[in-house]
Amino acid sequence: MNKNFYLLIFLLPIFSCSNYTLHTGTEYQKSITNIPLVPHQHNVDVYFNNDQPTQPYYKVKMIDASGPSNASYEALLNTLKQEAAAAGLDGVLLLGKQQAVWYNNISESRTIRDTTINIERQEANAYQIISAVGLKYAGNINYLDTIVKSTIVDIYEDGKARKLEVLFDYYGNLLNATDKNAAQFYADDIAPFDIRKHDAASVSGWEYSYDEFNRVFSFRISNTLEVVASAMIERSSSGRINAVQYKIKDPVSKRSIRYTLHCIYNLADRLMEKQLFNKNKLLWVEKINYHENTIAGCSRYNTVGETERLVFKADNYFFSQTDLPKPIDGVPVGIVK
To answer: How far apart are CA 140 and CA 284, in angstroms?
Structure first.
């Protein structure tokens, strides 16, 4: 099912209407030190003036919080700490607090001597904003072994195997654009059916939409002329993904072909298998392998009658502490820099 999706991620979609959001792959990039963060609920440390952490740390990105013009400094700090924890930061180095104003455009109709006129005006609203540099302690980055750094794929054709390697950044974005074969294979055969990434709206070049009224989550990819693939997720009452309905345009006939991806879970509610159907015909089965709670890889099989033929085997490799840049040394207690 080669649809050349890899080429599409470099083309600006023209079908990005207001209810679809394009994932460009830059959404999670950090402004100071680009390291991955995971939200947490533990306390966030606050550093004033020349204070510094006592342990190795990274300056990661700018962060701010706002509140009403009459909000206390304590309230602003608490809001900032909540924002920092949600972003996965361990500390904030305060830069300052300032007053600001935002303007709300207001359109009014007024009647003067039997004549109705429209008046446009702006309403000024004061608020406060507190800014800081977000910090991450090096010792708290203990989740790198859950983030895929590369996937090595063995593709089986005519009894022979060829090996491809696909590289990713911390956020699952494809890196190895120089290896066109590997990137093309990933974009055509793996990415469209990576339902966990799609559920997180995090596959580069794809657009995502959530219809709150109908509770429908959908995604699609377009070229400069048309939508070439779209999908809609079907969930159980508990929110688990049961199936995904696809419409993929055939590049030769230009017809949209419907596919259904069924998800099979074990008793522990772990996704174990994906099955792709065209109408009632089973096209392939993908069996998922785990290492502890992390997906270690998968194997996909074509089905011919009751016979399964191995199409490819993919193994994931993960980031480690050695992939991080050198942190800033902490300042021992009692020493002032």
So the answer is: 41
Distance, CA of 242 to CA of 253 (rounded, Å): 30
Q: Check whether 14 has a pLDDT greater than 70.
A: no
Which residues, in sequence order, are bridge partners of residue 218? 209, 232
> How many Cβ atoms sit within 10 Å of the Cβ of residue 286?
20
Hey, is 236 helix, strand or coil?
coil
Q: How far is CA 171 from CA 28, 37, 146, in A?
A: 7, 10, 11
Band (pLDDT 50/70/90 cuts) for residue 1 is low
Asked if 153 and 185 count as a contact pair (C-beta separation under 8 A), the reply is yes
Domain ranges in the chain with CATH number 3.30.110.70: 45-140
Q: Residue written as tokens 């006939």?
A: 253
d(CA 89, CA 75): 19
Q: Is 209 exposed, middle or buried (0-12, 13-18, 19+ CB in 10 A)?
A: middle
The full 3-state SS of 242-272, as one line of letters, equals EEEEEEEECCCCCCEEEEEEEEEECCCCCEE
**Per-residue pLDDT tens digits for 271-326:** 999 999 999 999 999 999 999 889 999 999 998 877 889 999 999 999 999 999 99
What's the whole-number average pLDDT of the chain?
88
Question: Mean pLDDT, to the nearest integer, of 20-39?
Answer: 90
User: Which single residue is written with the structure tokens 């065209």?
Assistant: 278
Answer yes or no: is pLDDT of 257 > 70: yes
Residues in the chain, total: 337
Q: Using alpha carbons, list the distances in angstroms from residue 196 to 97, 172, 201, 213, 236.
A: 40, 11, 9, 23, 15
CATH entry 2.40.128.720 includes domain 5-26+143-323: yes
The pLDDT of residue 111 is 72
Options 3.60.110.10, 2.60.40.1120, 3.40.50.720, 3.30.110.70; which CATH number does 45-140 get? 3.30.110.70
